[in-house]
Please model this.
Amino acid sequence: MNIFKKTALTCMMALAFGAVSTLASAEEAAKASSPVAETVAHLEKALIDVNHSDFSSARLHLKAARTASEGITGHDDVVKQANGSVVQSQVLSNSGDAKQAAAELNKALELYKAL
Model:
């Protein structure tokens, strides 16, 4: 009976550790694509705010998008070009030009979504 208990306990522990390791690797995979997804989400929110002429909120989302884009690795030329569009959009939104800011944001979104 003692051997049966030890075997059952060992099997349950093996299943528990297997489940935990699967969750851990799934979480790591989600973190790997997170900077691009976070950047795109902030840019989409900024685009909505710019279209509604809410430039103060758009400024915050643009700043958060630039911060999130620092975590993107690889494709440095595309990221640099997209960041240039985000910066240009920030400048245009500070001056109150909603149409041009939205156009620059759309360029940046296309570049980030291509990643």
User: Anything to note?
Assistant: Residues 2-32 form the longest helix (31 residues). DSSP finds five helices and no strands in the chain.
